[in-house]
Amino acid sequence: MTAPLRPMMVLGCTSDAGKSLIATALCRWFTRRGVRVAPFKAQNMSNNARVVEGGEIGVAQWLQALAAGVEPTVLMNPVLLKPEADTRSQVVVNGRPDLGLTNTPWRERGGALWPVMAEAFDELRQAYDLVVVEGAGSPAEINLEDLPNNRMIDHADAAGLLVADIDRGGAFAHLFGTWALVPPSTKRRLAAFVLNRFRGDATLLAPGPALLTERTGMAYGGTLPIVDHQLPAEEGAILRSVPSGGTGAPRVAIVRFPFGSNLDEFHLLGQVAAVTFADRPADIDGAELVILSGSKHVAADLAWMRARGLDAAIIRRVAELGRVLAICGGAQMLGVSIDDPDGVEGGTPVSTPGLGLLPVHTVLHRDKVTACIAVTFPADGLDHPWRALAGVETSGYEIRHGRSGDCGSPILASGPILASSVHGLLEDPAVVERILGRRPKQVLEATFELLADAVDEHLDTDLLVRLIGSGRP
Predict the structure, then answer these.
(1) Which percentage of the chain shows pLDDT scores above 90?
(2) Is 13 tagged catalytic?
(3) In the CATH hierarchy, which top-level class contains the domain 8-231+447-470?
(4) Confidence class for position 202, pLDDT limits 50, 70, 90
C-alpha cells in the first residue's frame, strides 16, 4: 500500500456499539501491515481522560495511539466533553478547558468547534499514512447538528464502516435505519457494515447480510464475536478481569460517584482483587481497601455521599483504622473544605465543607493542571498500613482544577488514609502488589494483539485494504 491512503471512519448505529474497540483493533491491524496510523475522534464525551503533550484527551484515543505505536497528542481528540451534571459538560478544546464554550448553549457551539476539529484532522492527515476516525454516538441523530460524524466524514472523504451491536437485537434494522436517515453525503460514503458482539451460530445470519447489501449498497465487512479482551472502559468503570486468587482474593470497594473520573485507571485491579462498586455504606463493610476515585464535580459527588450516608461510613472506617486510598477529587473530599469561587465545576460558585479527615483546604482554579509526573512514596512517615510503599518510585498523571495548598508532595499519608493528587498509580503492578500483596500483569499490549488477530480471523481484510486504497470495493 502506498500513501496517500483514504481515511477510514468507524461509525456506530448506537452509542456503545463497539466503535472504540473496532477502531483500536484497526489501528493495531493496519500498523502490523506497516502503515503509519493515527487515531482521531473529533468530539468525545467521557470523564475518563489521559494527559498528553498540550493537555488531555479521551482515554479511547490515548489507547488507540498506543495500539498504533505512536505518541498520543491533543490533535487526536480536539474536543472533549466532560459531564459534570445531567445537562452540563465541561468543554475541553485542544487539550484545555474552555469555560466560555462550557457556558455556551449546546446548539450555539458548532461555529467555534468545527474549525478546531477540521484543522486537527487535516494536520494528522498530513503527518500519517492513514487516519482511523472514530465517530460519536450515531450519525442518524436528526435532531442535532452533527459535526463529529456527518460533517467529518464529508470533510475527510472517509470510507465509512458502520457498526451494529448484534447482541442487543435488531441489528439489521439498526443498520438499515441508520443508512436511511443519514444525509446523502454520508450515505454515499458508508462503504461497509460490521456486526459486532455476536454469539451463537454464524450460519444463521444468512441471508441477512446479503439482503442488507442489496438494499443499501454497503458491503458486508464481517461479524466479530464477543471478544474476551482487557481494554479499559472508555466511559465509567468496567473491570473486565476476574480475580486470580479465587475466594482468597482481597476485597476492594470503589465508591461509585455519579461524576467519577479516570475510572479506567483501575483496570488492573480485577486481576488480583474482588472489586465491587459501592453506592451504600454496606458495600464497604469488610473491604480490605476502600478507594475514593477522582471526580469531575467534587461538590456534587460529596453531596451524593452525604445523602447516602457514605460520608459517615468513611469517617467510621478511618476511626477503625480501615485503609482508604483517595485520589485527586476523592482526596479533596477528605480535607477541610473545597472552594469553587468561579463556578469551575457546575457553573455556580460554591463552598463545600469536606469530611475533615485531612488538614487541607482546596480551592478550584480556572486553569487546569495537566501533567505527567514522577512519584516517590515517602521513605519515612508512612504509617503501618502503607509501609510497604516506602521509597517506591512510580509515575502517573494529574488532571485537576483543585489546589490543596503547598503539601510539598503529591502523596499525603495520615494513619489509614493515603491521599494523592496523582492518577495512574494503580496501573503500576509493583504499586498494586505493595498495597494488595498480589501482582497483576500488564495487559494492554496483549489486548491490542488479540484485537488485531480478531480482525484477521473475522473481518474481510481484503475489503479493508480496498477501502483505504480506492474507496468502495
Answers:
(1) 86
(2) no
(3) alpha beta
(4) confident
Among candidate residues 328, 365, 372, 401, the one labeled active-site is 328
Which region among 10-14, 103-107, 329-333, 431-435 has the lowest average model confidence (pLDDT)? Answer: 103-107
Would you kindly state where each structural domain of the chain is located, as residue ranges? 8-231+447-470, 246-436
The model scores a pTM over 0.70:
yes
Model pLDDT for residues 363-391, shown as the tens digit of each residue: 999 999 999 999 999 888 787 899 999 99
Per CATH, 8-231+447-470 and 246-436 having the same topology is answered yes
Give the pLDDT confidence score for residue 472 in this predicted structure. 41
CATH of domain 246-436: 3.40.50.880
Q: Please say if the pLDDT value at position 264 is more than 70.
A: yes
DSSP collapsed to 3 states, the chain: CCCCCCCEEEEECCCCCCHHHHHHHHHHHHHHCCCCEEEECCEEECCCEEEEECEEEEHHHHHHHHHHCCCCEHHHCCEEEEEEECCEEEEEECCEECHHHHCCCHHHCHHHHHHHHHHHHHHHHHHCCEEEEECCCCCCCCCCCCHHHHHHHHHHCCEEEEEEEHHHCCHHHHHHHHHHHCCHHHHCCEEEEEEEEECCCHHHHCCHHHHHHHHHCCEEEEEEECCCCCCCCCCCCCCCCCCCCHHHCCEEEEECCCCEECHHHHCCHHHCCEEEEECCHHHHCCCCEEEECEECCHHHHHHHHHHHCHHHHHHHHHHCCCCEEEECHHHHHCCCEEEECCCCCCCCCEEEECCCCCCCEEEEEEEEEEEEEEEECCCCCCCHHHHHHCCCEEEEEEEEEEECCCCCCCEEEECCEEEECCECHHHCHHHHHHHHCCCCCCCHHHHHHHHHHHHHHHECHHHHHHHHHHCCC
Q: Is it the case that residue 46 has pLDDT exceeding 60?
A: yes
164 phi, psi to nearest 5 deg = -120, 140
Q: Which residues pair with 93 in a beta bridge?
A: 79, 96
Q: What is the mean pLDDT of the chain?
A: 93
* Chain position carrying cell 447489501: 213
Residue 79 to residue 52: CA distance in whole angstroms? 14
Residue 328 appears among annotated catalytic residues = yes
**Residue in 155, 267, 401, 423 annotated catalytic:** 423
What does each C-alpha distance from 354 to 154, 304, 337, 341, 396 come to in angstroms?
49, 13, 5, 16, 25
